């Protein structure tokens, strides 16, 4: 069976009627204790059934005890635990149904609120679009008005220009006629002057030609002297060994030592140039991140610029020396290392040891041929 809440209810089994016995006049102490146990056992009927199964010997009860049980049933009302459990389940189910109804109501309210908000947003968006359209139309109307005014102003300006141009053409025609007359007069005078200038120019040209010829001859003689003074001696090269071409002035052992020094210096300078460039780039990165204060009080902006310029200058200098070292290494292979690029004379070994990549004598550097 089911109650109104949809909970199934178990039909109560009819209680077994005990055999009627004659009432006992006097109740013994043992009968009282048995009746109490019977009442308590009624409250926990399932437990009594389990005990009865385990100990069937207790089913044999005296007639006096049975009479006492009948009296106890009449005194204390029997509590149906199944009904209580069923009622409890029905109450819990009703509570659960009420909670579900409440959740559904809340969900419906929330859905209505979301729809109301969406409708309000749509109205606001529509109003905003209408306002933007109105502003766009007003702007277009203003631009159109401005364009019309600009066209009218341009037309007025063109009319004024046309009038001025016509007046200017009239004035030009008048001036041209006067200028033609003046040109004719000046042409006659210019022709006379040109003839006189031509004769004077011929005389001056002849004089300049003679002077130029004299100077050219002197320059040719000076150049011949300089060429003889700068004529480089022939380098006596020896057979190639270990990728090195020894010469009469620089043996293989010296050139090997110089090559090792140049290679070591190259590695050091390349590392130095790379480090300086990285520091300069790091200063730029710090400036972009806003770590440097560039105001008058901070003073760090100018310091950073100076440091960066210094790093870049030192890096460029190191790179330039690396290029000279590469040229020196190539000259060792070709058998031209240690000779002046100006005079071709051998550079002292002491100078080469101090500056392995040098390509000129001391007197050439500080003298006429030196590079500042």
Please tell me about this protein's structure.
By secondary structure, this protein is mainly α. Among the domains are: 29-79, no CATH class; 252-366, DksA, coiled-coil domain (Four Helix Bundle (Hemerythrin (Met), subunit A)), CATH 1.20.120.910. The protein has helices at residues 29-43, 45-54, 63-75, 81-229, 252-288, 300-334, 349-354, 362-366. Helix 5 packs antiparallel against helix 6. It is flat and about 150 Å long. The two termini are 119 Å apart.
Going by CATH, what is the homologous superfamily of the domain at 252-366? DksA, coiled-coil domain
What is the rounded distance between the termini? 119 Å
Structural class: mainly alpha
Radius of gyration from the alpha-carbon trace, in angstroms: 62 Å
State the gist of this model.
This protein has 372 residues and is mainly alpha-helical.
Helices and strands in order, then pairings?
Elements (H helix, E strand, L loop, with lengths): L28 H15 L1 H10 L8 H13 L5 H149 L22 H37 L11 H35 L14 H6 L7 H5 L6
Helix pairs in contact: 1-3, 5-6
Please describe the structure with a list of short key phrases separated by commas or semicolons.
372 residues; mainly alpha; Four Helix Bundle (Hemerythrin (Met), subunit A); 8 helices; 0% strand; flat; disordered N terminus; disordered C terminus
């Amino acid at each position: 069976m089911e109650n109104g809440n949809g909970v199934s209810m178990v039909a109560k089994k009819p209680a077994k009627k005990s055999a009627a016995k004659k009432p006992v006049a006097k109740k013994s102490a043992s009968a009282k204790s048995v009746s109490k146990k019977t009442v308590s056992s009624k409250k926990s009927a399932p437990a009594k059934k389990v005990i009865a199964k385990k100990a069937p010997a207790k089913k044999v009860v005296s007639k006096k005890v049975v009479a006492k049980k009948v009296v106890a049933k009449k005194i204390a009302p029997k509590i149906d635990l199944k009904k209580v459990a069923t009622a409890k389940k029905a109450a819990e189910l009703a509570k659960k149904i009420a909670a579900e109804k409440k959740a559904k109501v809340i969900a419906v309210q929330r859905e209505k609120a979301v729809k109301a908000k969406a409708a309000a947003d749509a109205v606001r968006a529509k109003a905003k679009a209408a306002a933007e359209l109105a502003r766009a139309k007003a702007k277009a109307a203003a631009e159109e008005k401005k364009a019309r005014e600009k066209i009218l102003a341009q037309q007025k300006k063109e009319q004024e220009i046309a009038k001025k141009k016509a007046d200017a053409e009239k004035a030009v025609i008048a001036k041209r006629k006067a200028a033609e007359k003046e040109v004719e007069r000046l042409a006659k005078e210019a022709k006379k002057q040109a003839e006189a200038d031509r004769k004077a120019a011929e005389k001056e040209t002849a004089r300049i030609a003679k002077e130029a010829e004299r100077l050219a001859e002197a320059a040719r003689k000076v150049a011949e002297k300089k060429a003889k003074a700068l004529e480089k001696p022939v380098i006596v090269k020896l057979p190639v060994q270990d990728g090195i071409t020894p010469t009469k002035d620089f043996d293989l052992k010296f050139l090997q030592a110089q090559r090792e020094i140049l290679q070591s210096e190259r590695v050091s300078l390349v590392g130095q140039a790379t480090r300086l460039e990285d520091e300069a780039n790091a200063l730029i990165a710090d400036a972009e991140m806003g770590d440097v204060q560039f105001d008058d009080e901070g003073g760090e902006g100018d310091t950073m610029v100076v440091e960066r310029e210094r790093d870049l200058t030192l890096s460029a200098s190191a790179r330039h020396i690396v290029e000279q070292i590469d040229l020196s290494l190539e000259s060792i292979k070709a058998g031209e290392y240690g000779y002046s690029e100006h005079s071709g004379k051998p550079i002292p070994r002491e100078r080469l040891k101090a500056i392995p990549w040098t390509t000129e004598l001391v007197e050439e550097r500080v003298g006429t041929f030196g590079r500042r």
